[in-house]
Amino acid sequence: MPNLSLLLTAEPLVQLHVLGATLSILLLPFVLLRRRRDRMHRIGGYIWVSAMATTALSSFGITGNGTFGPFSPIHGLSVLTLIGLFHGLRLAIRRNRVGHQKAMQNLAFWALGVAGALSFMPDRLMNRVFFPDAPDNGFFYVVVLGAAAGGMAQYFTQRATVR
Question: Can you give the pLDDT at residue 159?
Answer without folding.
Answer: 63
